[in-house]
Amino acid sequence: MNELTPKFNPTEVEAGRYEKWLEADVFKPSGNPDAEPYSIVIPPPNVTGKLHLGHAWDTTLQDIIIRQKRMQGFDTLWLPGMDHAGIATQAKVAARLAEDGILPQDLGREKFLDKVWEWKDEYATTIKEQWGKMGISVDYSRERFTLDEGLSQAVRKVFVQLYNKGWIYRGEKLINWDPKAMTALSDIEVIHKEIDGAFYHITYQIEGSDEFVEIATTRPETFLGDTAVIVNEKDERYKHLVGKNVILPIINRVIPILTDDHADMEKGTGVVKITPAHDPNDFEVAMRHDLPMINMMNNDGTINENGGKYEGLDRFEARKQIVADLKELGQLVDIKPVRHEVGHSERTGVVVEPRLSTQWFVKMDELAKNAIANQATEDAVEFYPPRFNDTFMQWMENVHDWVISRQLWWGHQIPAWYNEAGEMYVGEEAPEGEGWTQDADVLDTWFSSALWPFSTMGWPDENSADFKRYFPTSTLVTGYDIIFFWVSRMIFQSLEFTGKSPFHNVLIHGLIRDEEGRKMSKSLGNGIDPMDVIEKYGADALRWFLSNGSAPGQDVRFSYDKMDAAWNFINKIWNVSRYILMNAEDVSADAVSSALTKVANKTAGNVTDRWILTRLNDTARRVTEQMDKFEFGVAGHILYNFIWDEFANWYLELTKEVMFGEDEAEKDITRAVLLHVLDQVLRLLHPIMPFFTEEIFEKLPNTSGSIVVAEYPKVRPEFNDDKASEGVAMLIELITAVRNIRAEVNTPLSKAVPMLIKSEHADFLNAVSPYISRFTNPSELTIAKDLAVPEQAMSAVITGAELYLPLAGLINIEEEIARLEKELAKWQKELDLVNKKLGNERFVANAKAEVVQKEKDKLADYQEKFDTVKARIAELKEN
């Protein structure tokens, strides 16, 4: 007997299941040349540690998509891989070495990289184990890493081609500098945070006079790099000073007073200090006036030799000393507190320093122009939700040149070489001959990640089988926080090097927040480890929560209450499955097929069998429609309602009238229908909850192989029976109404009471009267198209029928009228809503005909109920 344990235990169900799937190779592409290809490349997690909930969300949604497409017969490829994450990984390894008192410089580049590769192997193994616990169905035979030789070849080719076109260049520009990681950062690697600071008001003396000008700055230490002060040429206050010089305090360097529109007469004192090597606006001023640019800071954020007596001090310690010295000189006028935004490194968290530096850049104007133009073509990337297309377009329209060099050892070393003669060579391979030294810097990690969709498919070999078959990829799933970092760069690089968009669809999800709506962070201590959640609830429960948490693009709050609800839902299905397996373990596949045919032809089975098959059809259709739109939350809601309410709470209970009866032939039909619906429910659920659905699926009497490659449910028109659907809906509504009335007058189901039903569908209701009797316990049951309405009776109006329970002695007429008036108000509210919708010309003109008709049907139903309740109130008041 294929027994299930009395209670769902995720640890037992999920143990070893993933390894069995891998052994069976069920995750690999089918190789069917007639099947439509569907491909996803996994957003690569970096190798700095464990998966976080955001990545668990990515992988869950992608796995749902790929599992469903695989079951639908697509030739699916889900290609896994990992990102080397230059800054983050190098910092992690350096921190580990520091615990043993070792600096990277002590080892040298090659030996340090050996340590990083050891780290990569350790954490890549951890990540793959966690992928297994999540149940993601990737093809490990195609696993890639951004530093693989094939991907490295693609990186070199792209760099060289862009360089030869003049779109990669080396130059001295103002960039964002991370003093902790000691590397350049791109604009989008800088996070602006609001912090407490101050405006320091300082006086500069006019050379050769006793006159002073006052400037205000939030970074007084940068005066060490000042090369001018500017005023607006229209500012009458300072016209007499233009062309003169000021003397920088303490260091006594003389710099000119110039005019420039950058000086705002209405802002501050109207006098602006210019520090070209440490401020982007000042850099532009210096370019206009051909000013010298003095870098006053070392790579680690300490003051360099240009800082005089402050040389060697940390930038913030130097600020304190300079402020104290200025105060002693009498040239510190005031300190005014201010709350302002300051750039911080996205990787290390330290305050970023704008700094003049020689770096490698990607010229973005043409690449951005191509990406923008492509969004107006048939090859446009479709964003879900569509509003993120605007986010993408706005960034591309305002993008700056991309600084791509990083002062690191871990990463793709820049393919440029220099010799003592001052010559530079750029190529995919090292130049021939002696005396060449490769550029020590590496490329921004996002440079290689931008090539991920096609470099992982074998490009630059455009004849690669995978590239020809599976590129462009079908769908990318990622969070909105990396649209700029990654999504945008993949699009413009793919268009440039393959002539195609890298993917057809981009599904954007939000961030996972804690129960209070706060972003999860180490500082708050509110992070949730998905592996801890899996240990307690199982991967299926976590995946159900992640897929049903929110609509595309929306943030979601993690909640243990929701995890409890997810586990309870799985346990409900588990118990339903136990009941069905105990009652239908010997039903053959032929018996199921034969029974379903008879039910469809109405030669056997009852109305509840035809109803549940109709509802199953509708559920499969609606779930598939919502999954195709990436509305996993809506799809989950539809599945939940069908499984919990219609299948478990109603159909299973209704079948007990048959299962506890004497008609063996009817029992056989019901058992077959139960098995079929359970089978289809498991298939519909499998993409979301792979582990326990496989566990139950393999215990069904008529299944073979893995549910991973089982056929996904399709609508079977022969099962549609609108009359059965409407009839059982009326039956359920009637039973529910009786239970509600009994509850209102505190009359338990165990006490039999008389019941009268007035309905145009009396023939049908008489046919299903055994169900009515079983679930409502009437002492007398009268069903007729026309009957005398008792004076003292509780009543209810349902679709297609009026229900009366003559509860003499239990009913209070005034209370019954009050109850009915509340019901009347409810139907009036429903009528108002429908009338408002149908009165909207835009809705009627633009909605589908069936949607409009559905609203009209509602209107007729609500009006009938309103009229009936109103008439009943009038009757009671007359009596």
Please provide a written account of the structure:
The protein has 879 residues and is an alpha/beta fold. Among the domains are: 183-354, Alpha-Beta Complex (Isoleucyl-tRNA Synthetase, domain 2); 547-703, Isoleucyl-tRNA Synthetase, Domain 1 (Orthogonal Bundle), CATH 1.10.730.10; 726-811, no CATH class; 814-878. Helix 22 packs antiparallel against helix 23 (690-697). The relative contact order is 0.09.
Portion of residues within helices: 40-55%
CATH architecture field of the domain at 183-354: Alpha-Beta Complex
User: CATH fold name of the domain at 183-354, please?
Assistant: Isoleucyl-tRNA Synthetase, domain 2
Biggest sheet record = 7 strands, mixed
Assign the CATH superfamily of the domain at 183-354: Valyl/Leucyl/Isoleucyl-tRNA synthetase, editing domain
Using the alpha-carbon principal axes, give the shape: elongated
Catalytic activity: tRNA(Val) + L-valine + ATP = L-valyl-tRNA(Val) + AMP + diphosphate
InterPro entries: aa-tRNA-synth_I_CS, aa-tRNA-synth_Ia, Anticodon_Ia_Val, M/V/L/I-tRNA-synth_anticd-bd, Rossmann-like_a/b/a_fold, tRNA-bd_arm, tRNAsynth_Ia_anticodon-bd, Val-tRNA_synth_C_sf
Subcellular location: Cytoplasm
Organism: Lactococcus lactis subsp. lactis (Streptococcus lactis)
Task: State the gist of this model.
The protein is α/β, with parallel strands linked by helices and 879 residues long.
Characteristics of this structure?
about 900 residues, alpha/beta, Isoleucyl-tRNA Synthetase, domain 2, Isoleucyl-tRNA Synthetase, Domain 1, 7-stranded mixed sheet, 4-stranded antiparallel sheet
